[in-house]
Amino acid sequence: MxxxxxxxxxxxxxxxxxxxxxxxxxxxxxxxPVAVSFVDVVGPSPSDLLPDLPDGPVTVLPAxxxxxxxxxxxxxxxxxxxRRPVRLAPALGPSQLLTRALTIRLAEAGATSDDxxxxxxxxxxxxxxxxxxxxTAHLLSARLATPVRIxxxxxxxxxxxxxxxxxxxxxxxxxxxxxxAVASYLLADGLFQQRLDDSGADVVARPLGLAAxxxxxxxxxxxxxxxxxxxxxxxxxxx
Length: 239
Prior knowledge:
Layout: E1 2-7, H1 13-30, E2 34-38, H2 46-49, E3 58-62, H3 69-80, E4 86-88, H4 96-109, E5 116-121, H5 127-144, E6 148-152, H6 164-174, E7 180-185, H7 191-197, E8 203-204, H8 212-223
Parallel strand pairs: 1-2, 1-3, 3-4, 5-6, 5-7, 7-8
Keywords: Lyase, Metal-binding
Pfam families: CbiX
Protein name: Ferrochelatase
């Protein structure tokens, strides 16, 4: 079986490199080939790669931290056009394993149990993705035994949550004298992580990256994927 890891896409080479490194780590852990594609900004797309992957079924793993539009609509559309057996694994988040990765990154950054905590996500206008981020905030709050506020790194006018700098400023006003720690709910370095770094928080965790629980979550999602869907194969086409 082949795994196709599908990520959002970014012009920042650090983000692209991280996805390929994640694919390598998943492949090493599972001892099976893992290809990489993207749904936006850069290629190749899933539709570009699916016809040329090795013969046999393909499990598509969304490298997304929430089940937003790209997962439910864009990736699904690529799979619907596939002419081979495919199945879609769940997105990486929300997950207790990703919550553990968040706590690891916070501890590495020097956060303590006395800090006020902000969960900083990329941001989404999709209501399903927003609920997933809220679930992650609840999971993190339970693990840390402290309230967790959500903030978005994006600057969309229709965002349901404030920006990271505004959230940090509001927490300073609400809890004077208390340190503020930002948990980065991002996979890789890039523009959004820079916005977290510039937010004015006392502690800013690094992106989740290749933290062991992230790889654990990815492998678990592959194992929990549904049944393969057989697709009709036109005459002369490669399965």
